[in-house]
TrEMBL record:
It comes from the Eukaryota. This is SprT-like domain-containing protein. Transmembrane segments: none annotated. SMART domains: SprT. Residues 165-325 form the SprT-like domain. Residues 81-95 have a biased composition (Acidic residues). InterPro entries: HMG_box_dom_sf (IPR036910), SprT-like_domain (IPR006640), SprT_Zn_ribbon (IPR035240). GO terms for cellular component: nucleus. Residues 1-43, 80-104 are annotated as: Disordered. Residues 25-40 have a biased composition (Polar residues). One of its GO terms (biological process) is DNA damage response. It comes from Melipona bicolor.
Length: 397
């Protein structure tokens, strides 16, 4: 019995040691020496005790239960890759991790993008509709792109010089009907003056007394050709001068820019809100063909012709010398370029050499002197051509 008790004590001690080892492995898996072992081996002491103990059915059942519990503990403590019933949510580096679903997020992004695109298209279409409703008078402005102008105004924007008189007549009829209630004469005199270089337009009012005692009032509008070089300038200047004519012909008073003129100007701006403010004086930047620029201080003077002698004229600010520049219009704007120097022609040199001698000998007027010099110069040219032909024929023979 003592021997049996000693064996039982040994058995319980070995089992407690064995269970402590496996609980240690559970709490700290790195303590385990082998990760590939699926089931723990049964110690020899346990096998010896099983052989000594009774083999009754109850004991066998208990040992079977113990073996099952032991096997369950073994499976719980197993860290090998062979276990098929593991439901852990952690993955080893060797496990096949499925990709994260991205279909829903992508579909959400695409729907948001489509919604933004639809909003942008609606805004663009609304802007296009607003731009398509641009009036005829507003389309004459240089600020409006040609793609958005009124169809009737496109030819005046593209070919203004050839159609400026037609545009002037159309604007006069439009203003007379909408602003002045057709009280201005239909056949009012409108002239174009190429010599006006400082004022865009004039309105000359006249009062004449007939022999029978009647008084007749009339107005005449004069427009500057070189200043009104764009359709919007013609649009704004014409209504300005027509307000002067209305104050004289309708109200019977020529008050300049007084209350009657202001009344008609305000009515015109109320009738056509797209018109700019009608002012007393214009601030147009006059385009000139030539520019005389001081070499020292940079002061410049615009001229439509070569009217200054740069050898004699000097700058009024610093007495510097002028240089002549050519104003060339390009797509980007006006570019100033150096004027090419032209050498005098052969006829000019001949006139300079022989003019004084012919005038003194014959004592005739300038026109007759130039006529004689022209005949002499043409005779010299014909003689030179004949000499060249004779020399060429002799050389060929």
């Amino acid at each position: 019995m003592k021997q049996r008790d000693s064996f039982i004590n040994d058995q319980t001690s070995s089992e407690s040691e064995h269970e402590s080892l496996y609980y240690t492995a559970l709490t700290n898996p790195r303590v385990s020496t082998s990760n590939t072992q699926s089931k723990p081996s049964v110690p020899e002491v346990v096998q010896r005790i099983r052989s000594v103990c009774d083999t009754d059915s109850e004991c066998e059942g208990d040992t079977h239960k113990n073996n099952q519990m032991f096997n369950i503990r073994g499976k719980m403590l197993s860290f090998s890759d062979e276990s098929e019933d593991s439901n852990t949510s952690e993955f080893d580096p060797g496990d096949d991790v499925p990709p994260k679903p991205t279909i829903k997020k992508a579909s959400i992004k695409t729907t948001k993008q489509v919604a933004k695109l639809n909003i942008q298209r609606e805004l663009i279409s609304n802007n296009l509709k607003h731009e398509k409703n641009i009036s005829f008078l507003a389309s004459l402005s240089q600020k409006i792109p040609l793609t958005d102008v009124h169809p009737d105004a496109k030819k005046y924007r593209l070919h203004y010089k050839n159609n400026k008189e037609n545009l002037c007549n159309y604007l006069y009829k439009l203003y007379n009907e909408k602003v002045f209630d057709n009280k201005l004469p239909e056949d009012m005199s409108i002239e174009w003056n190429i010599r006006m270089r400082g004022t865009a337009g004039f309105c000359y009012n006249k009062k004449s007394v007939k022999t029978l005692g009647g008084i007749v009032k009339s107005s005449r509008i004069v427009l500057a050709t070189k200043i009104l070089d764009t359709p919007d300038r013609l649009r704004d200047t014409l209504i300005h001068e027509m307000c002067h004519a209305a104050a004289w012909l309708i109200n019977g008073i020529s008050d300049g820019h007084g209350p009657f003129w202001t009344k008609w100007a305000n009515k015109a701006m109320e009738t056509f809100p797209e018109l700019p403010p009608i002012r007393r004086c214009h601030d147009y930047k006059i385009k000139t063909k030539f520019t005389y620029k001081c070499v020292d201080c940079g002061y410049s003077i615009g001229r439509h012709s070569k009217s200054l002698d740069i050898e004699k004229k000097r700058c009024g600010l610093c007495y510097g010398k002028f240089e002549l520049l050519l104003n060339k219009t390009t797509k980007t704007g006006i570019v100033q370029m150096q004027t090419p120097k032209r050498e005098p022609s052969a006829f000019a040199l001949y006139v300079k050499k022989n003019y004084s001698s012919v005038k003194k000998e014959r004592n005739i007027k300038h026109a007759e002197v130039m006529k004689i010099l022209g005949q002499q110069f043409s005779a010299i040219k014909i003689a030179k051509k004949q000499d060249n032909l004779e020399n060429n024929s002799n050389a060929d023979s």
